[in-house]
Batch of 2 targets.
Target 1
Amino acid sequence: MLAPNHAGASTDSKLLRQEAGQWLKHLRESRKLTQRELAERVNINYYTFISQIEAGKGRVPPESYHLWADALGVDRVAFVKSLLSFYDPYTYRALFAADDVAQKA
């Protein structure tokens, strides 16, 4: 069975990637790291890849989530959970919607 085609899904995905990029940029800048320094910490040869991710033109590769979390000094689980809310909001809601409701109560 194929997944349903969601109207506007690609536009929504682009906007969410841009929001994720801004969130990552904020984390990086609040730690006073340059794009080059972050690239070195996450074992990326080209710091311009950091710029692409922050602009919403790319995504943090899942296999390096732990490197990014450590480089940015944030809890790994919280980092992945936040990225998931941007990169795959349907899965995020399926996994954590009940948690979010419970925390607001």
Target 2
Amino acid sequence: MSQSTALSAPVSQDVGKATKMRYVVAFMLFLTVVINYMDRSNLSVAAPLIADEFGLDTAQQGLLLSAFGWTYAAMQLPGGWLVDKVQPRLLYPICLVLWSVATIFMGMAGSFVALIVLRMAVGGFEAPAYPINNKVVTAWFPERERATAIGFYTSGQFIGLALLTPVLLWLQHALTWHWVFVVTGGVGVVWGLVWYFVYRNPVDSKRANAAEVDYIREGGGLVALGSDEATNTKAKLTKADFGLVLGRRKLWGIYIGQFCLTSTLWFFLTWFPTYLVTYRQMDYIKTGFLASLPFVAALVGVLISGVLSDLMLKRGASLGTSRKLPIIIGLLLSMSMIGAIFTDSTAMVIMFMSIAFFGNGLASITWSLVSALAPSHLLGLTGGMFNFIGNLSSIATPIVIGLLVSATDFGPAFIYMTVVAAVGILAYVFLVGKVQRVGS
């Protein structure tokens, strides 16, 4: 590194041993994902009591549980555009505070319609979250560390759900379901303020020295993403940009694969607690404990996935093999939930669900493929499209299951989930192909 480069770098640390600010950023992403998924899953915790209070049938419950997905999916492309235009330091706290305030008001809702409207608001304001995560990790991590970083922050969704689902059920039992939303929303407001005051892009950060920034850059990290200079000079989106994002077969492979993967996730985020309470006749405290076990399994899966993927890459496996193999194996394992149809044993049901959700966790490094495949100037738009199509499952899964199941038979839901996972495997095998960045 030349003396002029060192002097011009916008950092306050002396050049020498690289700092580790990227690990702090990964932990910040982790905590944000914990809050994000706590606010996605709180409705599933409260759903049985809300259904009793408002007299909702299974179809109405499915509609309420899907309300998040309507706006979350619809806002992915506008959200992706915003991610390409607005710095993560500013956009993330705005989104955090807005969706958290909507969550708080859900605890004050007095009608079925009000709950749906507020839940749609939560979905809309959460839409840019994962494209922001992807932009941050692409800026802060070299390629050889990126899957581990993605696996780590993605684990936040499972850690939060595994540890906090019993807490939220206890809170609901001790007080009322209203407090589930008030407390979770309040946490998000506080964290939004923390993010604004702490987060900076690599080239704007005073906590990352020039050696760390160079290490990230030389390893393939796009260190200027979201910086002051890059944001101010960003070109407008064109029809050609949308044509590029929508016109490549390998991108459609990850879009379809993400829909299939997140279908399993949304089953656990919406219907799973109701399944245990209504179809397995468990009380709320026992449900809180048992419902947390598959999330613990998913946590183990996602932590293994990122480390395994990067280890394979470092030991000479191709980028495609390193990234796709854990995803395909995970989708195969997620099909095991169909075993719940064939047993009356609660222990066996939880075992099948835990294997399935372990597989979902193992497959949850899909954003590493967005980082690897997306055009470098369209990471936000590609991430938005990826999340838009993937999270159509947040609409389809609750509604389809609500229509398929009866008051006494939940089996069709498991058949549907198994078929969807199989489609995901086919998409990764036959559509994605060689993993390399898409260009114009």
